[in-house]
Amino acid sequence: QSYIAIDKGPLTPSHSLVTPVYHYPSATSASRSVLEDMQRLIDCLFDQNLRAGLGSVAFERYMPMQNPSAMHTQIQVVGVPLDRAMNAFTYVNSSEHFYGSRVEPLPTDNPTSITCLEDRLDTLDRSYFYLQAVGRDIGGGSGFVHSHCLWTLGHGGGGRRIPITFGRELILHLLPDSASSYVPCNEGKVEMLCSSWRDTSLDWRNCVTSRDSESRLA
């Protein structure tokens, strides 16, 4: 019901997309069985990153469009440092783009899963950002934490736009400076990018990989 694809402009070697086979404009409009299958693949990618000593973030940015057929659900999954993964939630909360947003209550009686998005919004006329992450407990514990959050926009005078680059901005914030040496799209370009590699990588078109690179990443 869903499959994994390599991101066209990957920020890490494990940067992947989980997307349903059939068309859904957003995860909130997908059936429960599709969401369960997507979460199964997300969990597989999370486990793969943990085996490599990495944490993970998974996210969906949804913006309403006049033609819903122009949108197709995709959950981006990216491996990030274990110690920084859970900082993703703080970054979103503090972003100016989420002024006036609402943190929606999510059920706590079920495992962390995108199935919580089933029929979540009455209409598709509201922007949202869904984030799921697994990483080391930043509260001082020695174990791992698996958590998620849903922000909806357009409340209390706040804006409704989430920049198309926001997800990449979030990932680049979580990656260490040393990431410039392994961002797949920057292979052979590190000297040219120097300290501006984050700004350059913000645009996925600067990170389009060759067919050979895609095959190697896959």
TrEMBL record:
Domain Cwf19-like C-terminal: start-end pairs: 2-87
Membrane-crossing residue ranges in chain numbering: none
GO cellular component, one term: post-mRNA release spliceosomal complex
InterPro entries reported in the protein's UniProt record: Cwf19-like, Cwf19-like_C_dom-1
GO molecular function per UniProt: RNA lariat debranching enzyme activator activity
GO BP field: mRNA splicing, via spliceosome
A Pfam family the protein falls into: CwfJ_C_1
Family matches, as PANTHER family: CWF19, CELL CYCLE CONTROL PROTEIN (PTHR12072), CWF19-LIKE PROTEIN 1 (PTHR12072:SF4)
Name this protein carries in UniProt: Cwf19-like C-terminal domain-containing protein
Species whose genome carries this gene: Amblyomma aureolatum
